[in-house]
């Protein structure tokens, strides 16, 4: 049986460090009180200068901020003994922090320094443990918030997702391929007095045979040749195979009704629909509901440059040229970025939706994810014809018309080109083409004494059409409108 990873510090040293951090106010609120909100925001952007201008030379909180957030060296004589285990020599009687100790929300997170603060060659190690970044924040924002028994943070890094899972799960397991990351995550847990099981190993291997109610992952998903230069970035799998492997593992990782959520990249290949590519990740007969949303596509060259910049620049190693050549050989023109949400249902009719959010959409939230699955359950478990519907909040209809080229001017010459539904749906801001039938269904809803079946009977009589054919046309339209939040079951 795999044993839980040990933290960097002994229990006694961890307790002593925690006491010092609390005593001197090295918390998010304490730092804001000490240097002000603007300088604190600058620190979170990895800009230490505003804070350094406000810090004294020897006050204990200032010393901690200089060391652990600004990345500066200080004389060893100024250091509290409890802090020493997390320091390293910096020459001439100076010491510097060996880790980036970040007050994050109500916790502390232990990672390596961002390269903005520590650009030296010795800090560009392949097994760097990243501090909390935008991708981790986006994943957390999209994570479901309901209470669960067992949760897994797969590819934990410094442990940020596991911190949040601790607020909603009875037990938390965190895994990482990197032994160094596992020790950092274990230190994050110990410092915050949280009882995690931290395991080292590749992908789902450390938890083989175990199931979880909620699995979150911010894995090394970079699309590339499969060579490993940075453990946090490169999975060792070519292309987007790592994401496909994680999807394939979901049926064995999840309990009935359990969810897997992770950030992902996928290749955009010339002549290939990216939706079909991602759909092939789902195992046949897996019983997985899937909602996979793309938020953007990055050109192949810009994608490679972005990753190289994030990892400190490696052009001198020839990595850029070989990476781009690998893309060109496989006709990869760009890389899509988004979120994958899976639910194990063991149903014979899983719902799979792979789509792109509009530029106007806000970032995905856990509440929106929960609502999407709730609407899918309603559609599977209810007969829409017997239900009462009302329009979704904020739904608007936009109509575009043009004059026919061969018509005389006047009202009779207008031709309706398209009708668009603007559906806020709590921030997703769908823009959907719709049909006259969809317009009629929404416009005629909201009558408390009329079911959808009654409404269709009324429409058939008014149009002089066959009701059964109208029902066949209306049901898929209703399902789409309910999924989008344009029609709300009463």
Automatic annotation (TrEMBL):
Q: Which Pfam families match?
A: DUF7059 (PF23186), DUF7782 (PF25004), MTS (PF05175)
What's in the GO CC field? eRF1 methyltransferase complex
Q: Where is the DUF7782 domain?
A: 370-489
The superkingdom of the source organism is Bacteria
Ranges for domain Methyltransferase small come to 147-265
Query: Tell me, what is an example of a GO biological process annotation in this record?
Result: methylation
Q: Name one GO molecular function term.
A: S-adenosylmethionine-dependent methyltransferase activity
Record keywords: Methyltransferase, S-adenosyl-L-methionine, Transferase
Under the heading InterPro entries, the entry gives: DNA_methylase_N6_adenine_CS (IPR002052), DUF7059 (IPR055487), DUF7782 (IPR056684), Euk-Arch_PrmC-MTase (IPR052190), SAM-dependent_MTases_sf (IPR029063), Small_mtfrase_dom (IPR007848)
Every DUF7059 domain range: 25-96
Homology family: Belongs to the eukaryotic/archaeal PrmC-related family.
> Entry's PANTHER family?
METHYLTRANSFERASE N6AMT1
Return the protein name.
Methyltransferase
Q: Which organism is it from?
A: Streptomyces mesophilus
